[in-house]
Design brief:
The chain is mainly alpha-helical. Helices cover 84% and strands 0% of the residues. The chain folds into two domains: 2-199, MFS general substrate transporter like domains (Growth Hormone, Chain: A); 223-405, Growth Hormone, Chain: A, CATH 1.20.1250. α6 runs antiparallel to α7 (180-199). The relative contact order is 0.13. Pfam families: MFS_1.
Amino acid sequence: MSSLNEKNVIAGKASRIILLACLTSVGIGQSFIFTSLPPIGREIGLSDVRISSIITIGAIFFVIGAFLWGGIIARIGRMKSILFGMSSYVITLGFTGFVLQQSLLKSLPAETTYYLLICLRIVFGLGISGIVPAIQTYLVLHGDPNKRSSTIASIGASFSIGMILGPALASFASSISLTAPFYLIAAFAVLLFLLVFLIVKDTTHVKVMIKPKSINWLKHPALPFLIMSTLVILGITGIQQIMGFLLQDRFGWSAVETTTQLGYAMMVMSLMSILVQMVLVPKFELGPTMLIYLGVLFAVIAQVCFITMQSYFGIVLAMGLFGICCGFLFPGVITAQTILAENDEQSRLASVNASLQGVGGASGPILMASLYQINSTIPFVFLGIAYLILFMAFLHYKVRIHHKIA
């Protein structure tokens, strides 16, 4: 019996590692396109607006797909949802590489290439948007309830690592050929698909072929924390959007200098976020209450640094502090959501959360850039006030979490 339990523990750890690797792969697939597509698009004759529209349309359908996937996951099961998402990931990336290759060889006109890429990116967005909520639900329901914050933190860190690796892998693979990143990343996804298919088993839920009961999210106790999650992502994408403007305006750097220095600052932010989620949260087993307290504290300090510290060191310091803030807030807010939802609501909760995060990700750059046009300090004042409001809202709603845990 002891031997059987030991095998189950090993299988559970292997499944966790494979699924977290899938999340890293999704992060790579989402981010490498920003590095690979622009130079190829220009090479085949697409305008910058059309290149951007391909990425934007894909992001829109990711948001739509994430919202729809919750009910689908509840009905067909998490494993089928993950496998379907990974297969659509492989197929669309492979075909995208093929289409771009044919266009570079002048076998396809630019106009045809553009519409094919839009179609492929739509399928890509709709397909992979089910992977994150399915994996989150699997890990939450198969994990230790007392270590849920650590589980959520590992999910965020894995995706963040993928977002960092994507551009780096694209730059490396592009030295082979412009379309090589698409094929290499698709090949990595094929390997993960096979590992999921052969090793990962879902012991708590397979499928329910009946329509799950509807959920009124406007009255659900997790609603305040869904709104908080949207704000967290809005802040991340908004800061990323305006930071290039701020560096260029404050220091008078050229486009090349700005891009280089911005890359360093962004790397510091990402690394600090990953460090918190991969090391601090699991080590100290911090609960959602403490995570949100710490996240808001570092968020406000970061905004003060952005406003008051005029040097480049000050900017990097503020970005690092903001990365720490995100490292605490992301697992804190989502852990609170999962505690407030029933087990049969977890997949739809994860789906709605992913969709709202997509909304936050899409609206953050527009909102923060608009505020920046009024005055360079207003976006940081806005975020500081928003995080304080988030904190006050949390103080009001945290009793629900404590009651649910008890």
